[in-house]
Amino acid sequence: MLQNDDLFELIHSLTKAEKRYFKLFCDTQGKEAVKKYLDIFDAINRMEVYEKESLERKFENLGPAKTKLIDKILESMRAHYVGKDFELDLNDLLFQAKFLRSRKLYDRSLKALKKAEANGEKFEIWEVLLKANELRRMIVKEVQKKGYENEVAQLRKQREELLEKIMVETRYFNLVDDLLIRVRQKTATRTEAEVREIREVMSEPLFQTEQLAVSFRAKKDFYFARYLAFQAIGEKSKAHDASISLINWWENHPHFIEHQGASYKITLSNHLNSCHSVGDYSSFPQILEKIKSRPVESLDEEAEVFQNISFLELIYLVNQKFYDRACNLAQDIESGLARYASKINPAREMAFKHNLAVAFFVAQRPGEALSWINQIPTDPHFSVRNDIQDFALIFKLILQLEKNGHVDDYMLRNSKRALKNRRNLFPFEDIVFRILERIGNITSKTEEATFLADSLNEIIALNQVSGNQNNFGLAEIIHWLELKTGKSSSPVGPVN
Q1: Which of the chain's termini has less CB crowding within 10 Å, N or C?
Q2: Distance between CA 283 and CA 281 in Å, rounded?
Q3: Measured between alpha carbons, how far is residue 464 from residues 189, 192, 469 in Å?
């Protein structure tokens, strides 16, 4: 039985450089003193899954030793990132100022404070400035003894201004949180009531008035909130405009990019999704390259970059009809899915497999498409991406027909029954099942061509009536029928 363990997760989240530094850090403390911890570290590092019983047989007093090892790892990481982690360095300056003040070395304390304040101001870290403000007030009172009222009044005013900035940023943070909760609760078509609730959030002054967002973080959340809300209610063009504004805001503040690189990469990935939603692929290559060029600082971030970059690149290549290049991504994607298995969202993994199947399908390589679609579970109790699961039941049959020239009757009946047990068939699905049930019995090429052309026209007519409702997989069906009838094939749309 698989077990979770904090130490196992911590060790396996470390990069190679971090693991190497930890061992060097331990060497400085004397090998005998830390030998047991290094042995436990190495044993866990070699494990692919956590094996508690194996460790307990090998090491005595494992519980306390594991706690001590976690402390050692954190201690070494703090030393490793001094000079590399901006906020850690700021807090270190505050510690220096506080310590020097306690020893009454006020000039040196104020020098450390001044440096912390300059960087805190530059990067708008108001909490650091609040702590610095408090230390300054203490030093003023201790040094001047009397006649310090003006300085204290200025510090009090600064404190109130900082608290106001923190309050505004908190309100924007909460606005984004509220929208994220609403957006993630449902990914399918929203009801009128759900859209009305989102519009109520959009009516708030914070959402409407850009001038209220007076800091980098507040303005960033202002644009992101607008992107989320417009995307959620289907106003994709306005969402795209907000996304462009957000990208421009980041790029007008390059010093924030350097110190918040992971957040910037997420913004770039979201922007590519926005580009996809409005069908604008012109900036895809440039933005993909920007994301790839950013440094990766942890295994978790490496996994995040993989599932965003590879996924978006696959979407781009299929939409631009670079089908062979899309198919060439399959091996790297398969390796990434295995390497980062514990870190990839199940919905994203399923979308990867669906999109690869689509790529091979439009490249007219049905056997390879079938191998990917067969990896998608079709279990009604597995409530992740039911739209992909449902269409997989039909897609398998089409791919089997294209690969083998016929459809297995038993599989056809089972798939139709399974789908009808999950929900009512969509109108276009009814037509597809009718095609699959009849096509094997048609002996005349002319009759088959007429039948498929009539079926295609019927599906297109249905689509014009239903719009975008209940049509997942429809693009693939139309593409397939157009190929079968010799018409110019329409583009397919990989899923997000």
Answers
A1: N
A2: 6
A3: 17, 22, 10
